[in-house]
Write a structure and sequence with these properties.
alpha/beta; 7-stranded mixed beta sheet; 4-stranded antiparallel beta sheet; 13 helices
């Protein structure tokens, strides 16, 4: 035990990102739930105080212009773009992830060639993606085909219009092959739509480099935008002129203040907008993104892999054999930024997580038997990983 403890101290001392933790409002808790809700960057509160008291309180409606409220969806989209490997002008921020899934799937089905009437959906997907895709299929006359990501190449065919996949499985932390699957989808003549909720801000994505057609993602996990912070929609530049949104709201109109009865879509990523932007949460997100100044996604990914490797090593050393089994892949090429452990007895899952939280280790669970631990490299360290594994062992041995 002392060896792993001492190694954790040495690894933290050598960590190039160790100073980033001071940018967040954290206590002595080991917070391993940033894959559900990221921690609060300290400076966001002061920024929001200014937004509320000066921009809203004093300037009032003038802030749509003078404080840049109107252009916030595209401006913040351009700040997220480098984190997911996209050039400027392709991401718009606004609405929820679910709403953006709907926009992307319906728009992609409209972009697909005639005669293609199947939408392949990740069978292991976060439930909302599946619900939204099924509704989109009913509305467009398409047929839903649930398929495991590994089986996508074999399931593709001349009727495939769209494939909706998660980059990282929310339950197991498995990282799917975005480059290879996107290439297979394109080779079959279909469009690829990716959900980046569990990868953006944790690992390189490469939307432009790998030719992704459309993508969506939330901002309250690894991007630390706050509870319910707005999601984003990526539309590759090559598709923007033909992008036909199923939700053509007034703020995506070419002349939004013309108030004409006919809809004429704006150019570029603005087409992804719908209604009035949710300014308070959007500007909190914009401020939160400041923690990325001077940080590369590659550095974050390197630390993420080192952290999860070290945590798995500590679990193997500390936890009684057979009490938990890792379900997150060992291979770096197949691992996101979380570690999921399956309990030997499903009935133990909730009591174990409750006991961990009471002892200062915050993770979460996915029924029936999975303990999830998310590692956000900007504020989680190696001593956190060692302490979490040690306390997990103590809880399981009790």
């Amino acid at each position: 035990m002392s060896d792993l403890y001492e190694r954790a101290q040495a690894l933290d001392a050598a960590d190039e990102l160790v100073g980033r933790r001071e940018l967040f409002a954290l206590d002595d808790t080991v917070y391993l739930d940033g894959n559900s809700l990221g921690a609060l960057p300290r400076h966001v509160a002061a920024r929001m105080q200014d937004v509320i008291t000066r921009e809203w309180g004093s300037l009032r409606i003038r802030s749509w212009d003078e404080s840049g409220w109107w252009t916030a969806p595209e401006r913040i989209g351009d700040r997220i773009a480098p984190l997911v490997g996209a050039a400027a002008g392709q991401i718009v921020v606004g609405d929820s992830t679910s709403v953006n899934v709907f926009k992307a799937v319906v728009a992609a089905s409209r972009l697909a060639a005639d005669g293609r009437d199947e939408i392949l959906v990740d069978a292991t997907t976060f439930p909302t993606d599946g619900y939204i895709a099924e509704s989109a299929a009913r509305m467009t006359g398409h047929r839903i085909v649930p398929v495991s990501p590994a089986d996508v190449p074999a399931a593709l065919g001349p009727r495939t219009a769209v494939v909706l996949l998660n980059h990282v499985d929310y339950r197991t932390g498995r990282l799917h092959d975005l480059p290879g699957l996107t290439a297979a989808v394109h080779a079959a003549g279909a469009l690829a739509v990716w959900d980046l909720c569990h990868s953006a801000g944790a690992l390189p994505v490469g939307l432009d480099a790998h030719g992704v057609d459309l993508a969506i993602g939330c901002t309250y996990k690894y991007l630390n935008g706050g509870p319910g912070s707005p999601a984003y929609l990526y539309v590759a530049e090559r598709h923007q002129a033909a992008f036909d949104s199923p939700l053509p709201g007034w703020t995506s109109h070419a002349d939004p203040f013309g108030m004409t009865p006919e809809y004429t879509p704006a150019d570029g990523s603005v087409r992804g907008r719908v209604g009035t932007p949710d300014i308070l949460s959007m500007l909190a997100l914009e401020a939160a993104l400041d923690v990325w100044e001077g940080v590369t996604v590659e550095a974050v990914r390197a630390k993420s892999l080192a952290l999860t490797d070290f945590f798995l090593e500590c679990v193997a050393a500390y936890v009684p054999e057979g009490r938990v089994v890792p379900v997150t892949p060992v291979s770096h090429s197949e691992r996101g930024s979380q570690v999921s452990l399956r309990c030997e007895n499903a009935d133990d899952t909730e009591p174990v997580m409750r006991a961990l939280i009471e002892r200062g280790v915050v993770g979460d669970l996915r029924r029936p038997d999975v303990l999830r631990f998310g590692f956000t490299p900007l504020y989680v360290g190696f001593a956190d990983a060692e302490r979490a594994a040690r306390i997990l062992a103590e809880v399981l041995a009790a």
